[in-house]
Amino acid sequence: MRALLDRLEPAPAVLLNRLSEALAWTDGYERLARPIGLLDGCDGGPPNLTHFVFADSRARTAFPDWDRVADDQVAALKQGPFRADRHIAALADQLTITAGAAFAERVRTLPGLPRPNGVVRLVHPEVGELRLAFETLELPADDEQLLVVHLPADEAASAALDRLTGRRSGALRAVSG
Q: Which pTM value belongs to this model?
């Protein structure tokens, strides 16, 4: 996976486990996620996207469409054994206490699966609002890991990502989304 991530540079890409913990990422993802706080980690553990979305106040600023992002995070957790998995159950219990109704209501009412692709809006402190197209690639079931790759969804995001990565103009071309 590390070799694949290296080949994806300068695209922001992250390898997540079933708990939404970030296991590895590209330098492009580091430049995108670190300034908003997403890679700060939680409770001394690895960075956790779901924990960030529900327990970190910066998430609502970072994601203008926070409700949609929150729905996707809960849907991803509920995919598979959910509470039958003791690790996911522990994370869900923690978030039920930390985030309260914002998390618990989604767990109770949200049907369906997470979106495997789409466009997410992200507000970055250095380059402003970005529209990023994302693709989620599921790895073999035994690994229980996902590779999420972000690409600019428009020319403005393409130029902003070029500035963040220090690459030549057009290194990351916009994709329709």
A: 0.90
Residue 110 has pLDDT above 90, yes or no: no
Which domains, from first to last, does the chain contain? 2-165 (3.30.450.180)
Burial zone of 77 (CB within 10 Å; 0-12 exposed, 13-18 middle, 19+ buried) = buried
48 and 22 in contact (C-beta within 8 Å)? yes
The residue type at 64: P
CA distance linking residue 33 with residue 39, whole number of Å: 6
Whole-number Å distance between alpha carbons of 137 and 158: 22
Kindly state the DSSP code that residue 168 receives in the 8-state scheme: P
As a whole number of angstroms, the distance between CA 103 and CA 105 comes to 6
Place of tokens 């970030």: 22
3-state helix, strand, coil in the chain (%, to 5): 45, 20, 35
Q: Tell me: the pLDDT tens digits for 75-103?
A: 999 887 788 889 999 999 999 999 999 99
Which neighbouring-strand residues pair with 120?
A: 132
Backbone φ and ψ for 25, nearest 5 degrees, come out as -160, 165
Among 147, 125, 127, smallest CA distance to 136 is for 147
Residue with token string 């070029």:
162
